[in-house]
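Async update (no meeting this week)

Hi team, since we skipped the sync, here's where things stand on the single-chain job. The sequence we agreed to prioritize is pasted below, unchanged from the tracker. I ran it this morning and attached the output directly underneath so nobody has to dig for it. Comments welcome in thread, and please keep replies under the output.
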Amino acid sequence: MKLYAQHGYGEGEKISQGLQKGIISGAVYGAKDINPDRLNERLGEIAAISPTAGRLFDPQYYVSLIGSDPNIRLGRLEEYPYFSIMRRSQLESNKLIEDELRKVIKYQVGLPVTAIISPNILISRSFDSVEAVIAKNFIRQAKEIYEEFSDKRPLYVTLAISREALIDFTELEAFLNDVTLLNSPPDGFYLLIGARSVEARTDLYNADVIAAWMLLNYSLKINGYQLINGYSDLISPFLGAAGGDIGCTGWWSNLRVFSMDRFAPEATGGRQPVQRYLSTKLLNRITFYELDALRRVIPDVVNELSMDSEYIGEPERAMEVLQSWEALSSLLTSLAVSGDSLKNLEKCADAIKLAGDLYTSIKARYRLDTKSDDSHLEALLEGMNLFKRRAEL
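Output:
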């Protein structure tokens, strides 16, 4: 499984450095945080840095249905020629969906991207809804519209689902049956699983959500599709074990969790979060001062990778995401190594057990911050086992 940067505000040299160091394999740029001219420039710069790097653009069309809210922060989205505020009732027209697909795809065909991501809306409540019908129509018609442009790059269709909709297994199965039997199938899917808030950790670290997300990857993969998991962060290795091809994560919490909350007004007066260190053996991030305290007595928390040298004391803030990418790439290499899902899942189970044992040693000596604790492990293990049962592995 490859790792891509999830682009957002404050890019600086992060993506360039990640590519130069070989710790990411590409990037997914988002319309909200970059204007059209700069986007074109950055895609060209990335191609020059790493000709083989994946260069993708998320048109973030799903924001169009909430764009009329006066409190929504659209950022640069309004500068893109395809973007307009829509009503759900408008998109019940197949003709309008065709027109919207054509606008977004036409714009991307002119970009130096390595693949095209077609637009869609978010299924916010249920697969048994008008939203789901609209989303399926975007998926069904994307390839035929794309073929009008005689472009040879792969086409990924956006499939954005809230965690509330995802956890209804019966409806998910029915939806998967519909989208895996397409007359004009795309090359793959750009999967987005939506939390209620970027800070709602338990929204995604939930056994039903993890199992369903893994099942999406597994089912679509065995039907011949390529899978890009947006904002998948530390769940990426488990999605890779189930068949996912690419995982994505960025440098802020709103680039590690997909949520429409990202477009809500920013809280004022907040301070920057404490720098964290991603420990591959804990399958989690701990604060830099927790790392300093633990590395002397429990050295196994340290990854023994090149970016560890930046964490002697408080690291430079720009180094945090590079360390995170390096550690996550290492996890992807070790846990999603073959096309045999069962073997991959065994490796994931071993990693969870190792993390649990290490946390037990830590608890005997040190009290961790709540974001650094082991509360994620149970959800990962239960979610993985639930996926195995549902996939009949």
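Quick observations from my side:
The radius of gyration is 20 Å.
The chain has a mean pLDDT of 95.
Reply here if anything looks off.
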